[in-house]
Amino acid sequence: MPDFADDTKTELERKADQLKWVALIETCGYAVLFLFFVVLHNKTGTEITGFFHGWIFIAFAVMVVWIWPSMQWRWYWIPLALLTGPVGGVLVYEKIRRDGVPPEARREVRAPTHATM
Prior knowledge:
There is one protein chain. The protein has 117 residues and is mainly α. The chain has one domain. Helices cover 64% and strands 0% of the residues. The protein contains four helices and no strands. The longest helix has 29 residues.
């Protein structure tokens, strides 16, 4: 039995939702890192936050690179998202929130059929 038997979303829509939230978390992580590094000058806080922010950024980068062809984004979305720091995360979040998955990229979703005994 499929994991998402009653879900009407496509796999691409689920991936886009996940990327949207990872983009938001990446931006928040960057803001917290900025707070510890620049504002508070807290070395321990910077090291701990930097460690977690690094992993979150790597996840964000991999997700952007994997999803952009399926979402039919133009090529410049990759460097825009990855090189602009927290602004890139906000841009990706907002693009997915506004545009969603392009209709051409969606596959037909069939209603689940339940076998009767």
